[in-house]
Known about the structure:
mainly beta; 5-stranded mixed beta sheet; 2 helices; elongated
Amino acid sequence: MTATSGLTVFDLLKKLPGVTVDQNENISLRGSSGVNVLVDGKMTYLSGAQLTNYLKSISAEDINKIELNMTPSAEYDAAGNAGIINIVPKKNLQKGYAVDLRTGLTKGYYWMANENISASYRTKKFNLYGSLDYKMPYGEWKSVSGNTINQNGQTTALQRKNQSSYKPEFYTWHAGGEWQFLPKHYVSVDYLGYLDHYTSGNRFDTIKSYDANDKLLSFVSSINTITEPYYYDAVNLNYRFDVDSTGKKVTAEAHYVSYRNYSDGAMATNEFDADGNFIRENTLLAHQPGFIKIKSINADADLPFKKFSVKTGLKYAEVANDNEYRFDSLKEGNLVEADNMSNHFKYKERIAAAYFSAFKKIRKQASTPACGWNIQKQTAIPLSRM
């Protein structure tokens, strides 16, 4: 059994030097949160909880290595100036067919399954691949807490009990191919899809208040349900021209990324007096759909020469963001929109950029260490050593 058996990519990141994960599962590199995460050199454009859940959906057994680029060059977006994390998946380099099937079953508070199937076909000029992952990392959380309030000379003690069950299901599918249609000329297409179907259907909260003599004053009981399916699709078209054997190459890429988040929630709160008599009910419904589309094209040239190296390129991108937050509260038996809580946010952005960077090593004598400018520091960590 390998050291990565049963782990996810998110588990591996927490073990890497320089990578930290806080209590809210936000990822930072050397203390900075502005990190771009790539999969096989392609930007995911994910952040926050969506990025965390996506990394949890990828099995560590499918990964060859993780590269940490501490000082990304100008070819990367400015938003990722804190660093680059590149996740390099395993690839079948042998000609012919390859099929891999894995399954896992664990028992904690709930039964949980982990399924994977991947296949590839490679010839001298063609390479086709595809994979499908399914995970269900269910969880149960219980807590008891309390605090004391002193107001107007009176002491009130609050006791809270909470019980929550989380039932996310992750589906990840990946397919693509590469074709060498002429010597040194390649075209490829890569499609990555992801579904995070998150539900928290049994969240119970009870808050009881007591006076200074531990006499029950009142209590509040609430139930909170959340359904939050999240869809992610990314398509990448790529052309590459390997100019010569020294590493010179010219590439052109087109990207399309789509996020769809359909979030619905409901919270019902009932208040009772010390004798258990019903006082009032408060109900709040939440509907929070969000849509993001990203389109981009770029052309890059990587030109290493004998005494110096040059990287240059052009990029154009369009981003559209449409998020609507609507909350409805129950008043006199009717649902009424809560205007002070609802909001509709629309955003569009167009970016055109060009970059140029050069690197040259300067040596005074053979024993003098190399130095230069625009130096990139990159670390590749093979998983077999972890």
